[in-house]
What does this fold into?
Amino acid sequence: MASDPPQTPGFAPPWWLRGPHAQTIGSAFIGSRVPEHQAILRRVDLDDGDALAVHDSMPAGWQPGDRVALLSHGLADDHRSPLLLRLTDKLTRRGVRVFRWDMRCCGAGLALARRPYHAGCSGDLAAVVDGVVAWCREGAAAAPPDPDLAIFGVSLSGNVVLKYLGEAPDRVPAAVRCAISVNPPVDLVMGCGSIASRANRIYDRYFTGILVKHLETWWQARPDAVRPSETKKPRTLWQFDDWFTAPAIGYRDALDYYRHASAAQFIPAIRVPTTIITSRDDPFVPFEMFAADRVAYPDCVRLLATDRGGHVGFIGRTGTDPDNRWLDWRVVEIIDPRLPG
It folds into this structure.
């Protein structure tokens, strides 16, 4: 496993935002009003009849072969996530073409799918990657160059990215030059056990409520979408996956789904330079799941762990970076190290 490079600035939260819950909650509310970024809406058709929505933001002057980023959203979110919007703005200002995709039944793809997204939907990501590579070759010469493609995932999609890279490494296009996974729950059994703890119960109930409401909205848009056989609604994420997700995607129960979808088992086979960014105080993703006795890291995978930061928080002190979004600037540096932060 690669070590942290000496030039990576350490994360230091402001004194008033030091705790894991403060960072986790603060990231959703502090400076979260980011305007929607102009993009071309594209579509990826899947083999099972469903489709995905992809949003293409191409800066002026971009040429085939230039740098490209594919951004994936987290649980109960879509391409309008404040994090994805901030990254899109910062990257396109530096000439990087950015694609953001909505997982099945999310965002602009709400009515395009009969089946749901989930933590193991690496096949969907593979289809999007292939689409991005093809779109980036459009308008090029007879032998178009590969784009210089970086893949980014956060939380649930961070697990998807790692699973995609490691489950069939021979099928990952050469265009994929690097990957970033932020706070990924690489052991879904441990992660769901953590969020079900007494300290995190409010989060568990909150996310479950959002997912149940999302299902109702989705079913109105797609009356033919898959539905659970039982009408009793869940109160926890584990119950939700037992009730809906696992049977909807072909697994016996939540435990069966978690064991098959967890990315830890696929990390050893990753060949693409990959950075996993996480925090030791993440209330949802216990740092123990990244221990060397649980995950066999290849040399190309770097674990960048901070003492603080919560779950996808990383709101830092002002002064080191152009703004206090420490995570944003680390992602920008990895995707295009030629460009100053």
Residues 2-6 have pLDDT under 50 and may be disordered. DSSP finds nine helices and eight strands in the chain. The two ends are 26 Å apart (CA to CA).
